[in-house]
């Protein structure tokens, strides 16, 4: 960290964006430094209750779970975090009468660390993070950041209500269309997929037993992800990828017609279905920032990278960003150095760039391979899946990959203190 020196402004950090990665970073920093570091999170969405997240749920891998445990959030989630103990993958066409399972992952007694992922309901997680941030003394401001101007040892952020805040480091956790990233002139390589992600919560007659299922269909994957039982019975979240051109026809009809389309793709073993929440449709895109930082600016979460939800890893990448940035900033502050200095931000980018590129490339490749009905591609991928299923070592590698490999992870993802 050559050339970085402590300055009064270095005791304040500002974040734009109160999504799960942004709130996790704010909480981690405040817990590590207490009153020695003022942390402010600005987001116009803070004016609304977390209830707007209702109906969304995320697969959170083991590393993210360890981080949320370390931050003191996990235990309070209770039934809002349901373990995935088994995963089955099938590859078929929509009219096929059976969906043969090609690949299965199950939790084994050797998995002392617990399930490789949990389905976590977004409303409960956002509520818990907001409450913990408030209790830890993070200032939560329900206002957007309009622009930011680096100014020597600090960066000046102008809020949408006209106030100016000075900070050593501004974290842009303001989502895929990050205005702060664009204003800083940081390039973006990306494209839209001709697909939409449809999300809904369904009730089903029989229990799922912790099993997640992903049916690869020619228009894209249809994932059935286990949630905890609710007052109305057994529940799962679905993430259904469809061709964008077909979405209006599929979702525009009466609720019974929408449910019938879901039933055509669902797993018959779970019995009769009903809709509990949704569906809501989300355009899908790929994108990665050319740099993860600018002058006194760090990009976090979807502001830095957006990937296809085929493997449920976008938020997991954002949590890993938060863990890595918290570690880089904490390292600087403990040495009395400037947390917004260029070398701190380079260290952050170095910690995240390779993992992010590898995951982005893998998810894009998987989507191209599976959202495809050409016969030679079908045969090749089915052989590939069958082979992996017969090699337990390889399978464990794949599960370990999905849950992020342990050795090189930032401390929080290993469940260790900063
Ligand atoms: C269909 C679908 C399913 C998915 N499933 C999974 C999954 O199972 N597991 C997983 O890991 N990931 C999943 N993802 C990815 C995950 O949803 C995203 O990666 C994650 O929500 C990104 O969080 P974020 O906080 O970076 O961005 P966002 O959630 O977009 O939040 C950005 C925040 O910034 C605020 N903001 C915007 N502009 C400003 C400004 N100027 N000033 C201040 N605040 C501002 C916004 O109000 C918003 O609250 C899925 C994605 C899709 C589309």
UniProtKB/TrEMBL annotation:
Pathway the protein contributes to: Cofactor biosynthesis; ubiquinone biosynthesis
InterPro entries: FAD-bd (IPR002938), FAD/NAD-bd_sf (IPR036188), Ubi_Hdrlase_CS (IPR018168), UbiH/COQ6 (IPR010971), UbiH/COQ6_monooxygenase (IPR051205)
Gene3D superfamilies named in the record: FAD/NAD(P)-binding domain (3.50.50.60)
FAD-binding domain mapped to chain residues: 14-352
Cofactor requirements of the protein: FAD
Keyword line: FAD, Flavoprotein, Monooxygenase, Oxidoreductase, Ubiquinone
Family to which the UniProt record says this protein belongs: Belongs to the UbiH/COQ6 family.
Name of the protein described by the UniProt record: Ubiquinone hydroxylase UbiL
Native source species: Methylobacterium cerastii
């Amino acid at each position: 960290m050559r050339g970085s020196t402590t300055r009064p402004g270095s005791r304040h950090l500002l974040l734009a964006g109160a999504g799960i990665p942004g709130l996790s970073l704010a909480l981690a920093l405040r817990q590590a430094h207490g009153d020695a570091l003022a942390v402010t999170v600005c987001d116009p969405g803070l004016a609304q209750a977390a209830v707007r997240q209702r109906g969304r749920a995320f697969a959170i891998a083991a590393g993210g779970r360890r981080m949320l445990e370390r931050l003191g959030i996990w235990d309070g989630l209770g039934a809002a975090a349901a373990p995935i103990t088994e995963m089955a993958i099938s590859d078929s066409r929509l009219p096929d009468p059976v969906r043969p399972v090609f690949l299965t992952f199950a939790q084994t007694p050797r998995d002392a660390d617990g399930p490789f992922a949990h389905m976590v309901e977004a409303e409960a997680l956002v509520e818990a993070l907001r409450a913990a941030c408030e209790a830890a003394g993070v200032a939560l401001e329900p206002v957007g950041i309009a622009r930011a101007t680096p100014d020597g040892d600090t960066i000046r952020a102008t809020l949408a209500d006209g106030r100016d805040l000075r900070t050593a480091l501004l974290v842009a956790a303001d989502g895929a269309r990050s205005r702060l990233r664009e204003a800083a002139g940081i390039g973006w390589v990306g494209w839209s997929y001709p697909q939409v992600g449809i999300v809904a919560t369904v009730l089903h007659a029989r229990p799922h037993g912790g099993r997640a299922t992903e049916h690869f269909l020619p228009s894209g994957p249809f994932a059935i992800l286990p949630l905890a039982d609710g007052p109305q019975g057994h529940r799962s979240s679905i993430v259904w990828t469809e061709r964008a051109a077909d979405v209006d026809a599929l979702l525009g009809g009466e609720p019974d017609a929408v449910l019938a389309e879901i039933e055509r793709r669902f797993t018959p073993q779970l019995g009769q279905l009903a809709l509990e929440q949704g569906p809501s449709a989300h355009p899908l895109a790929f994108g990665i920032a050319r740099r993860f930082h600018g002058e006194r600016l760090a990009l976090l979460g979807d502001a830095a990278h957006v990937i296809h939800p085929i493997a449920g890893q976008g938020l997991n990448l954002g949590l890993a960003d938060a863990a890595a940035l918290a570690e880089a900033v904490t390292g600087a502050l403990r040495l009395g150095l400037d947390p917004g200095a260029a070398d701190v931000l380079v260290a952050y980018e170095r910690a995240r760039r390779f993992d992010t590129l590898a995951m982005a490339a893998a998810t894009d490749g998987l989507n191209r391979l599976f959202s495809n009905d050409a016969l030679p591609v079908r045969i090749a991928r089915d052989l590939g899946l069958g082979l992996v299923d017969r090699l337990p070592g390889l399978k464990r590698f794949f599960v370990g990959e999905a849950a992020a490999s342990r050795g090189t992870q930032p401390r929080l993802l290993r469940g260790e203190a900063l």
